[in-house]
Write a structure and sequence with these properties.
The complex is a heterodimer of chains A (about 260) and B (about 350). Chain A is of the alpha/beta class. Chain A has a domain of about 150 residues: 3-Layer(aba) Sandwich (Rossmann fold), CATH 3.40.50. Helix content of chain A is about 40%, strand content about 25%. In chain A, the strands form 2 sheets. Chain A has a 6-stranded mixed β-sheet with strand order 6-7-8-3-9-10. Chain A has a 4-stranded antiparallel β-sheet with strand order 2-1-4-5, with helices on one face. In chain B, helix 5 runs parallel beside helix 9. Chain B has 2 domains: about 90 residues, STAS domain (Transcription Regulator spoIIAA, 2-Layer Sandwich); about 260 residues, no CATH class. A 3-stranded parallel β-sheet of chain B has the order 1-3-5. A two-stranded parallel ribbon of chain B has the order 2-4. Chain B has about 350 residues and is mainly α. Classes of the chains: A alpha/beta (about 260), B mainly alpha (about 350). The interface between A and B is medium-sized, with 29 and 32 residues.
Chain lengths: ~260, ~350
C-alpha cells in the first residue's frame, strides 16, 4: 500500500444517504481514498455498490451528505462547475458504454475533441497511444459491435483515460470475462496505476481480482459499510458476513436446500 | 545507411513533444535513413508526450525511414514498453472504399438476400396466422387482443380527424372547379366516390404506418439488439408465430374498421364544407351522397385496407429484424420501415388503379 496517511485524501465521502423513491439505498456511508490508491468497493448484488459509484461521480445527488474532491464538495455544485470537476475523473462502464455509431478511435477521441484543447494532429496520436496502453492498437477503426465484451471494456477504459484524469472509476472490470482476460485486465490496471499514478476506485465482486489488485477494500451490505481495510484484514476479520464473502459460502437458506 | 540521432528533452510532455516533432521535421528524413531518438536525458514523460512520439514514428515511416529509440531507462522505459504496439503499428490503411462494379454487385446481392428474407417472413406469417392455428398450433390470443387495442382502438381519434380534414380539403378543392359550371352538388358525389375507392384507405394507411409501422420496427429492432430475439429462437420458439402472427391478425381486423370510420369521417368532412359554406340543404347533400355510394367502390377500399394492413406489419417486422448495430441501427431501421411502408402503399394503390380503372371496366 503506497498511500500515506498524512497526505490529504483525493476523495472523501461523508455520511452519504441516498434513496430511490422511498427505498433507502445508502445509509450514511463515509470513507476516504488516498492518491494513487486502488480502492475497491465490494459486496453482494444489490448492496448499493453501483449507486454509490453514481453518487461519487455526480450522476446522482444524495439525499444528504457530501462527496469531496480535494476539498470541493460536488453535491452542491451547479451543472457547469460539476462538469468541470467531472473532467478530472474518468468513468469506465460495466459494458463499455461506447457509442455504437462511432469507431473505437472516435469514441476515445470524443472527450479530447469536446474538452481537451488539444491539437487536432495530436488527437490521433493520443487515441492510438491510449489504445495501445489497453492493448487495442489494432481496433482503432472498428465499431463497438465488432469487439468482444472484454475488448469493449478495455476500449471503455481507454476512453476514460483520454483526458489523463487523476481518478478513474471502473464498474465491474472483470464481470463476465474469462479468467485469462480478467487477470490481464487486472495487470493492466496495476500497470497504469504504476506508470501514470492514477487513483482507481473499482466496483467488483470477483474474489480473484480483489486479492490481486486491492490496496484497500470497502464492503457494503444493505447500504452500510460493514468493513473497511486491507484484504489481509478482511480475511482475518471476525465479522461473519465478511468471512462468508471471502470463503464463498452461500447463505443458510441456500445451503440447507443442498442438505 | 545514414543515421540521425536526436536527443529527447528532459521532460517529454505536450509542449516539448511538439518541439521534438518540429526539429525532426526540420532535419528531414531521407528514404532508408535511420532516426534514433536518444532518451538518455529523459527522466519523465506523460501520455501527451508519448502521443507526439507516435506522430514522429508516423512521419519517419511515411518517408520510408527507420525509427528506433535507445538509452531509455527507469519509468520512461516502462512507459515505452506499454506504448510499443502503437509505435510499431500506425499509418494502418483505412478500409479501402469499393469500386463501381463492386458496389453494384454488393447492392445486387444485398437486394436478392433481402428479398429472400422478406419472402421467408411472408410465408411464415401466412402460415402462422391462417394455417397454424387450425392445425392446433398455439396462437397468442392475449397479445392479439392487446395489439388490437394498441393498433386499432387507440388510433381511432387521430385517424377520424385526419380523414375529416382531408374530406374538407377535397370539398374545397373540387367546389372551386365545379362551381364554374353550377355543378357543385356533385362535390358530394366526388367525396363519397373518392373516399370509398381511394382516400380513406390511403389516408388511414399513412396514419397506421406512422404509428404502428414505426412502433413494430422499433420494438423488434430493440428486441434483436438486446438479444431477446436470439433468446426466443434459443428456446425453440418461432419468431413469426410468437411475435408476427398476432400483429398480422390484429391489424387485419383493426385496419378495415379504421378505414370504414375514415370513410364516414371523410364524407362528414365534405359535408362540413358543402352544407354551411356552399349553402346546400343537408337532406339534398346526403341524398346525393347516398345516390352515388356504390357497394363495388366500398369493397375496393376494403380490399386495399386488408392488403395495406398485411404490408405494414410485414415491412415493420422485416426491417426490425434486420437491424445491425445498437441504438443507431434501431433509429435507422424505424425510419426505413416507415419510408418503405409509404412507398409500398403508393405502389399497391397504383396497381389497383390500373386494374380497376382500365383492366376491369
Amino acid at each position: 500500500m503506497n498511500a500515506k496517511d498524512h497526505h490529504p485524501p483525493v476523495i472523501s465521502v461523508r455520511d452519504v444517504v441516498a434513496h430511490y423513491g422511498d427505498t433507502l439505498v445508502l445509509d450514511g456511508i463515509s470513507f476516504e481514498v488516498q492518491s494513487g490508491e486502488i480502492f475497491l468497493i465490494v459486496g453482494g448484488s444489490g448492496c448499493g455498490k453501483t449507486t454509490l459509484l453514481k453518487h461519487m461521480t455526480g450522476l446522482l445527488r444524495p439525499t444528504s451528505g457530501s462527496v469531496l474532491y480535494s476539498g470541493v464538495d460536488i453535491t452542491t455544485l451547479d451543472e457547469d462547475r460539476l462538469a468541470t470537476t467531472q473532467q478530472n475523473i474518468g468513468i469506465a462502464f460495466q459494458s463499455g458504454g461506447l457509442f455504437n455509431s462511432m469507431t473505437i478511435g472516435e469514441n476515445v477521441a470524443l472527450p479530447l475533441r469536446e474538452y481537451g484543447q488539444v491539437d487536432e494532429a495530436l488527437i490521433e496520436g493520443i487515441v492510438r497511444l491510449k489504445l495501445s496502453l489497453v492493448g487495442l492498437a489494432a481496433a482503432q477503426h472498428l465499431l463497438p459491435d465488432e469487439l468482444s465484451g472484454g475488448m469493449r471494456k478495455r476500449a471503455g477504459l481507454a476512453r476514460a483515460m483520454a483526458l489523463d484524469p487523476p481518478i478513474i472509476y471502473f464498474d465491474e472490470p472483470s464481470a463476465g470475462l474469462d479468467p485469462i482476460i480478467a487477470s490481464g485486465l487486472d495487470d493492466l490496471i496495476l500497470d497504469i496505476r504504476k506508470l501514470l499514478g492514477i487513483t482507481f476506485v473499482i466496483v467488483t465482486h470477483e474474489l480473484e481480482s480483489i486479492r490481486k489488485i486491492a490496496d484497500r477494500i470497502m464492503m457494503l451490505e444493505q447500504g452500510k459499510v460493514i468493513f473497511l481495510g486491507t484484504v489481509k484484514e478482511a480475511e482475518s476479520s471476525g465479522a461473519e458476513r465478511v468471512r462468508q464473502f471471502f470463503e464463498r459460502r452461500p447463505d443458510a437458506h441456500i445451503a440447507q436446500r443442498k442438505a | 545507411m545514414t543515421t540521425k540521432r536526436v536527443p529527447c528533452p528532459k521532460e517529454l510532455n505536450q509542449e516539448s513533444g511538439r518541439g521534438l516533432l518540429d526539429s525532426v521535421r526540420q532535419q528531414g528524413i531521407a528514404r532508408g535513413e535511420e532516426l534514433i531518438l536518444d532518451f538518455s536525458e529523459t527522466e519523465t514523460m506523460d501520455s501527451r508526450g508519448g502521443a507526439w512520439l507516435l506522430k514522429i514514428a508516423d512521419l519517419v515511416r511515411s518517408k520510408h525511414g527507420e525509427f528506433r529509440f535507445e538509452s531509455h531507462h527507469g519509468r520512461v522505459a516502462e512507459f515505452m514498453e506499454l506504448i510499443k504496439p502503437g509505435l510499431e503499428g500506425g499509418l494502418e490503411e483505412k478500409p479501402r472504399s469499393p469500386g463501381f462494379v463492386e458496389r453494384v454487385g454488393d447492392h445486387g446481392i444485398n437486394f436478392v438476400s433481402e428479398a429472400r428474407d422478406f419472402l421467408d417472413l411472408y410465408v411464415d406469417a401466412i402460415y402462422w396466422t391462417f394455417v397454424g392455428p387450425f392445425e392446433g398450433r398455439k396462437f397468442r390470443w392475449g397479445l392479439f387482443v392487446d395489439e388490437v387495442h394498441e393498433m386499432g382502438v387507440r388510433a381511432i381519434g387521430i385517424n377520424c380527424l385526419m380523414n375529416f380534414l382531408l374530406g374538407m380539403i377535397i370539398a374545397m378543392l373540387s367546389a372551386a372547379q365545379l362551381r364554374l359550371y353550377g355543378a357543385d352538388i356533385y362535390v358530394a358525389s366526388l367525396v363519397v366516390i373518392a373516399f370509398f375507392r381511394e382516400l380513406a384507405a390511403v389516408m388511414t394507411a399513412v396514419v397506421v404506418s406512422a404509428r404502428t409501422g414505426a412502433a413494430i420496427a422499433a420494438e423488434l429492432a430493440t428486441m434483436e439488439v438486446q438479444e431477446e430475439i436470439d433468446a426466443l429462437r434459443g428456446m425453440g420458439l418461432n419468431v413469426a408465430q410468437f411475435l408476427v402472427a398476432p400483429k398480422v391478425l390484429a391489424l387485419l381486423l383493426a385496419m378495415p374498421c379504421l378505414v370504414v370510420l375514415g370513410m364516414v369521417s371523410g364524407i362528414l368532412g365534405g359535408a362540413a364544407w358543402g352544407i354551411p359554406v356552399l349553402g346546400h340543404r343537408s337532406d339534398v347533400w346526403f341524398r346525393q351522397t347516398l345516390d352515388w355510394a356504390d357497394l363495388g367502390d366500398f369493397f375496393q377500399g376494403m380490399l386495399k385496407s386488408v392488403i395495406f394492413a398485411f404490408t405494414i406489419v410485414l415491412v415493420g417486422c422485416h426491417n426490425g429484424l434486420r437491424v445491425k448495430g445498437g441504438s443507431r441501427g434501431v433509429g435507422l431501421m424505424t425510419t426505413r420501415a416507415v419510408v418503405m411502408d409509404i412507398f409500398f402503399l403508393i405502389v399497391i394503390d397504383m396497381i389497383f388503379a390500373a386494374i380497376f380503372y382500365y383492366a376491369w371496366d
